[in-house]
Amino acid sequence: MNLTLKVWRQKDAKSPGRMVEYQAANIIPDMSFLEMLDVVNEGLIARGEEPIAFDSDCREGICGTCSLVINGIAHGGQRGTTACQLHMRHFQDGQTITIEPWRAKSFPVLKDLVTDRGAFDRIIQAGGFVSVNTGGTPDANALPVAKVDSDRAMDAAACIGCGACVAACKNASAMLFVSAKVSHLALLPQGKVERNQRVLNMVQQMDAEGFGNCTVTGSCEAVCPKEISLDFIARLNREYGKALLKGATGHKETV
Amino acid sequence: MSITNVFTSSIGKKYIMALTGMALFLFVVLHLLGNLQVFLGPEVLNRYGAFLQGNVELLWPARIVLLILVGLHIWSAIKLSAENKAARPQPYAQQELAAASYASRTMLMSGLIIAAFIVYHLLHFTVQVTAVNLTGKDFTKLMDAKQQHDVFAMMVTGFKQPVVVGAYVVAMFLLFLHLSHGVGAMFQSLGWKNPAHGPLIARFAEIISWFIFLGYISIPIAILLGYGSSYEGLTK
Ligand code: FES
């Protein structure tokens, strides 16, 4: 396959960036999107040019590091798929492909296609954890959890924190990410104790980071590689309202 | 952290947006049901008009509450939109919105045009400024046999003007667009949605938006097509 790439190049966080055109020649359809970029980079290095910087780690769709907006869609538009799991057979020979970084004030571009997603880490630090040390893996059924709750908690916990929801949202809102984290912990007994404080703190941090507001358009859910549902945002809204009414310490002491 | 966070936090402002939206939505439904009495004839409609106008102690508090609701709805909309704009200073060179519907992307615009329409509508039928009704008649002078304000004659005279009817139909279409996204979204913003009854809410939003649109435009269009033309109150 031969492709034309239009790639966002930006020297560093301070410099302005621009779209630059490259030719990707002799691409094998079974390559992943990132392997295609590796091939292009080898060519650039051979010519003595600066390779295109992009993030990746596991390359098997589980870490959430890869973060490319491909032809205007975060992760390229194949449902439930990260960019690293997207294969070149989904493109046509001779096609022009635009590649941009996640664009949000809260995710500043560090270089080319690499963004700083520290904002997500700070949201987690604000409350996305359980304070008590819960020890080793408990015996099965030692702690009763209803099947519906465990299933829903697992659905939420599937979030890999890649940030595609922010990238796809017309408002650069982080609600899907925050809702997944809040829901996953609030549904389980270990996380329930701190649920009020957690949701208040995480939303406060989310707002402080400068993310936009949810207008229920559903673009986040459509691009999410883990197919986290918009229903979790409704759950987050519910959790937040309850926490505001009850106050941060409005939970029952369990010991 | 206290309840005042409703005014400062992102989710809090969405609550304000949703709650005021819900109250205004209920008003829109009641207003429609009231107005549809035009099809029950002049007597019923004029009695209804006299009933509303006769309760000044209720009329003005209701108007003030509505004004506050509209004010809060617009305030939260502008605040939230400004924050949303600021959240992405560098736009994409190419962006495909993966799901966002046309209605969801144009909420601010449809809302602001509807607000402008409400001003016109109030001048037209509430304040009854002769200059805006394009008929040259003074609506405040219309009285029926019982010496009540002749609302029926006012509506029939007012909606004989195709230009005015056109403006009302366009405004109601925008209201339809606004509600087709807004009604479902308000349940979501308030957290009153779950996977079980989510589809039901979506269906309800669709049906009620159509009902409101068709209900409202039926009045001016019926009048333009001749409904009420034989009413004797018109000749005065
Ligand atoms: S590189 Fe780990 S998910 Fe793509």
Q: How would you sum up this structure, described in words?
A:
The complex is a heterodimer of chains A (255) and B (236). Chain A is α+β, with helices and mostly antiparallel strands. Chain A folds into two domains: 3-111, Ubiquitin-like (UB roll) (Roll); 117-246, Alpha-helical ferredoxin (Fumarate Reductase Iron-sulfur Protein, Chain B, domain 2, Orthogonal Bundle). Chain A is built from nine helices and seven strands; from the N terminus they run ββαβββββαααααααα. Chain A has helices at residues 33-46, 118-125, 147-157, 164-168, 175-186, 189-192, 195-208, 219-223, 231-246; strands at residues 3-9, 18-24, 69-70, 73-74, 96-100, 109-111, 114-115. A five-stranded mixed β-sheet of chain A has the order 2-1-5-3-4. A two-stranded antiparallel ribbon of chain A has the order 6-7. The longest helix of chain A has 16 residues, at 231-246. Chain A starts with a strand and ends in a 9-residue tail after the last helix. The relative contact order of chain A is 0.14. Chain B is mainly α and 236 residues long. Chain B has one domain (3-235): Up-down Bundle (3 helical TM bundles of succinate and fumarate reductases), CATH 1.20.1300. Helices cover 70% and strands 0% of the residues of chain B. Chain B has ten helices and no strands. In chain B, helix 2 crosses helix 10. Chain B is elongated and about 60 Å long. Chain B starts with a helix and ends in a 12-residue tail after the last helix. At the A-B interface, strand 4, helix 7, helix 8 and helix 9 of A face helix 1, helix 2, helix 4 and helix 9 of B. The structure holds FE2/S2 (inorganic) cluster (FES).
